Amino acid sequence: MNTDLVIGIAGEAIKVTLLLSAPMLIVGLVVGLIVSIFQAVTQIQEMTLTFVPKIIAVMVAAIIALPWMINLMVSYTQKLFSSIPIYIR
């Protein structure tokens, strides 16, 4: 196992991690932006107003994206496990 192989595996793991977290992060960002615009317009500065909509939206995004996320993780894991004989050499 050489350095290029380790860097390739780490790069692929980081890519998969970013792809898995992207739906929830994007939804949280959009909902946070909408709530902050609403707070600025109405001048309501309630701290809990920012957290509850984000938590609900991220949970909904996770439920919607769950089949895709599971498929991505399973395919990555299968590819990683099937490549073990190549990595050992």
Task: Give an account of the 3D structure.
Helix 1 (3-42) packs antiparallel against helix 2. The chain has one domain (3-88). The chain is built from three helices and no strands. It starts with a helix and ends with a helix. It is mainly α and 89 residues long.
Task: List the keywords.
90% helix, single chain, 3 helices, mainly alpha, 89 residues
The number of distinct structural domains comes to 1
Spatial separation of the terminal alpha carbons? 7 Å
What is the H/E string? HHH
Assign an overall shape. elongated
Oligomer kind? single chain
Q: How large a portion of the residues is in β-strands, by DSSP E?
A: under 5%
Task: Tell me the radius of gyration.
Answer: 19 Å
Content-based structural category: mainly alpha
Helix proportion range = over 70%
Number of helices: 3
- In terms of per-residue confidence, which ranges show pLDDT below 50 for 5 or more consecutive residues? none
- What is the number of strand segments? 0
Described by strand count, sense and barrel closure, the largest sheet is: none
Which whole number gives the mean pLDDT?
92
